[in-house]
């Protein structure tokens, strides 16, 4: 059993670590100031410039296959990158990425959707959730009706990330009610100028998803992504693309937060001694460190299963569940250690507190992950002895 990083893994991790320290962390005070004023933390031109700097060092399209100009990184390498990016709240991601399901585009769609998305010229959004269908995604009611060479889409989507910024949406609609999710849902590539409307939803986080309305939107038949009836499988592929990635970012945030808590605990004195000398504070730090370590191995183990071609769904659900629950407990402890200062907007702790809360909800709530894990165990698909048997 070898837990060491290879030279490639260490080099890549170290490059991103340095990039975060040199390029992103110095932006943090300004990002906080802007967000307090209700503005975006990073301006589009700043994001472009940062992505260009990274690109010049070869960091472009982390998981985009090399034939599309990307790095084609595996899951473990990508997780290592995400952990480092998580160490800052500056809203950065490397350029050159596209939703995994866009690689199902045919040649004509590649030119219109996939390639411009990789190039950063077009922005996509993934539109599955509806007011009446979140965890129970099979209950979607948006319909698409064939009319000659077009499909006519009617319905409403909600909580769609990038829904207010995107210029095209990957929309999942029922095309055969009798078949439902089993062959009766289709994915459409729908340009904004075909007539759908979006409205921002204010959330406790710094960025808001949107609700989308499709009122008789006519979409050319050539905009079906994949096969008619193959939409639900595509949706599950998008959601399952990397449940290890969200907890990986949260893990980086937890590392940084606990470092901040330790720094504060060493320098803050009460009753004549640093609070770091108090057992109450030490236990919070110790528990957080143990949980961070456990999360690291859950994340990397799930990523290793992906790279090994194993069925990683059980491991990914465990990483997502544990990451969401523990990151929230850890940020709460870190806020507590900072006392009143932790509650202010002078420090980023409350910002992380609000942001990390989302991890327990999107891309499968805690309860849905538990349901998956318990089902796998009870039906004998997975064992409590883990992969070692
Ligand atoms: C900021 C944000 C961004 C998002 N981005 C996107 C996006 O880009 N695209 C997209 O399609 N969706 C997106 N979503 C939607 C997200 O995936 C859903 O909110 C999530 O799946 C939960 O669905 P719901 O909100 O309808 O809650 P519900 O499904 O109504 O669940 C409500 C509660 O009941 C629990 N529950 C539900 N079923 C069960 C069960 N069987 N057993 C036990 N408990 C259960 C849930 O865990 C939850 O606690 C986003 C959501 C948010 C908040």
TrEMBL record:
Acyl-CoA oxidase/dehydrogenase middle domain segment(s): 125-194
Cellular component GO terms held in the UniProt record: cytoplasm
SUPFAM superfamilies: Acyl-CoA dehydrogenase C-terminal domain-like, Acyl-CoA dehydrogenase NM domain-like
Name of this chain's protein: Medium-chain specific acyl-CoA dehydrogenase, mitochondrial
Species this protein is from: Longimycelium tulufanense
Family to which this protein belongs: Belongs to the acyl-CoA dehydrogenase family.
Alphabetical list of InterPro entries matching this protein: Acyl-CoA_dehydrogenase (IPR050741), Acyl-CoA_DH_CS (IPR006089), Acyl-CoA_Oxase/DH_mid-dom (IPR006091), Acyl-CoA_Oxase/DH_mid-dom_sf (IPR046373), AcylCo_DH-like_C (IPR036250), AcylCo_DH/oxidase_C (IPR009075), AcylCoA_DH/ox_N (IPR013786), AcylCoA_DH/ox_N_sf (IPR037069)
Keywords, comma-separated and alphabetical: FAD, Flavoprotein, Oxidoreductase
Top-level division of the source organism's lineage: Bacteria
Residue span(s) of domain Acyl-CoA dehydrogenase/oxidase C-terminal: 229-378
Stretches assigned to the Acyl-CoA dehydrogenase/oxidase N-terminal domain: 6-121
UniProt keyword annotation of Cell cycle present: no
GO MF term (any one): acyl-CoA dehydrogenase activity
Cofactors named for this entry: FAD
GO BP, sorted A to Z: fatty acid beta-oxidation using acyl-CoA dehydrogenase
């Amino acid at each position: 059993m070898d837990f060491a990083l290879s030279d490639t893994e260490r080099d890549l991790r170290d490059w991103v670590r340095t990039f975060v320290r040199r390029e992103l962390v110095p932006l943090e005070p300004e990002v906080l100031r802007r967000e307090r004023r209700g503005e975006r933390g990073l301006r589009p031109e700043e994001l472009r410039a940062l992505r260009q700097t990274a690109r010049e060092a070869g960091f472009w399209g982390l998981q985009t296959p090399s034939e599309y100009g990307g790095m084609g990184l595996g899951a473990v390498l990508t997780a290592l990158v995400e952990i480092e990016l998580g160490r800052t709240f500056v809203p950065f991601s490397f350029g050159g990425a596209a939703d995994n399901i866009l690689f199902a585009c045919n040649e004509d769609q590649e030119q219109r959707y996939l390639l411009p998305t990789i190039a950063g010229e077009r922005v996509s959004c993934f539109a599955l959730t509806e007011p009446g269908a979140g965890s129970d995604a099979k209950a979607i009611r948006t319909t698409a009706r064939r009319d000659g060479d077009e499909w006519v889409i009617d319905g409403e989507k909600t909580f769609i990330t990038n829904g207010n910024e995107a210029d095209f949406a990957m929309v999942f609609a029922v095309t055969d009610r009798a078949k439902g999710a089993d062959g009766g849902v289709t994915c459409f590539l729908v340009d904004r100028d075909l007539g759908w409307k979006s409205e921002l939803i204010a959330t406790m986080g710094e960025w808001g998803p949107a609700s989308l309305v499709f009122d008789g939107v006519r979409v050319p038949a050539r905009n079906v992504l994949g096969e008619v009836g193959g939409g639900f499988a595509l949706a599950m592929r998008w959601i399952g693309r990397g449940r290890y990635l969200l907890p990986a970012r949260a893990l980086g945030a937890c590392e940084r937060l606990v470092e901040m808590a330790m720094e504060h605990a060493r320098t803050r004195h009460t009753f004549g001694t640093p609070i770091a000398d108090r057992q109450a504070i030490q236990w919070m730090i110790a528990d957080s460190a143990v949980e961070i370590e456990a999360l690291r191995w859950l994340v990397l183990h799930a990523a290793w299963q992906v790279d090994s071609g194993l069925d990683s769904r059980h491991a990914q659900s465990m990483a997502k569940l544990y990451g969401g629950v523990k990151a929230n407990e850890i940020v709460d402890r870190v806020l507590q250690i900072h006392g009143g200062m932790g509650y202010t907007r002078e420090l980023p702790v409350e910002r992380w507190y609000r942001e990390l809360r989302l991890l327990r909800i999107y891309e499968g709530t805690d309860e849905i992950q538990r349901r998956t894990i318990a089902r796998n165990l009870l039906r004998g698909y997975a064992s409590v002895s883990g992969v070692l048997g």
